């Protein structure tokens, strides 16, 4: 067991190849959901409402707002649309403290995570 932990096998040996195979199998066969590397406010499901409230790591309220604007619109257009959607959902004007884009696995913008001042 000590040899496996200290990786003391020579390159090209059967043991070295087996260890490399196990590591590669772990990397490529483990599903992404096992790691849970995204916070809840950065996860957007198609079944979610347009505006969803959750908490960040510090207990602050975060609103995840889906963006329904054309893909080739500018960043300012997306931000304004997200702010307007949030204001409509809350029924009051909001002052944004922080705003982070949320992307899907293909890199397309799908929502914004918005922290507001209360």
Write structural notes for this entry.
The chain is of the alpha+beta class. It folds into 2 domains: 2-30, no CATH class; 40-117. Helices cover 31% and strands 25% of the residues. The protein is built from 3 helices and 4 strands; from the N terminus they run ααββαββ. The chain has helices spanning 2-6, 14-29, 75-90; strands spanning 51-55, 61-66, 95-103, 109-117. Strands 1-2-4-3 form a 4-stranded antiparallel sheet, covered by helices on one side. A hairpin with a 5-residue loop joins β3 (95-103) and β4. The longest helix has 16 residues, at 14-29. The chain starts with a helix and ends with a strand. The relative contact order is 0.14.
Question: Layout of helices and strands, plus pairs?
Answer:
Layout: H1 2-6, H2 14-29, E1 51-55, E2 61-66, H3 75-90, E3 95-103, E4 109-117
Antiparallel strand pairs: 1-2, 2-4, 3-4
């Amino acid at each position: 067991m000590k040899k496996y932990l200290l990786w003391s096998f020579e390159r090209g040996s059967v043991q070295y190849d087996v260890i490399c195979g196990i590591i590669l199998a772990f990397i490529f066969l483990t599903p992404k959901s096992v790691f849970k590397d995204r916070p809840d406010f950065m996860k957007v499901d198609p079944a979610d409402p347009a505006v969803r409230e959750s908490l960040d790591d510090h207990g602050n309220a975060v609103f995840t707002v889906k963006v329904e604007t054309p893909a080739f619109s500018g960043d300012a257009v997306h931000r304004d649309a997200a702010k307007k959607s949030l204001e409509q959902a809350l029924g009051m004007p909001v002052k944004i403290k922080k705003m982070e884009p949320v992307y899907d696995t293909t890199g397309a913008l799908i929502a914004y995570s918005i922290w507001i001042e209360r």
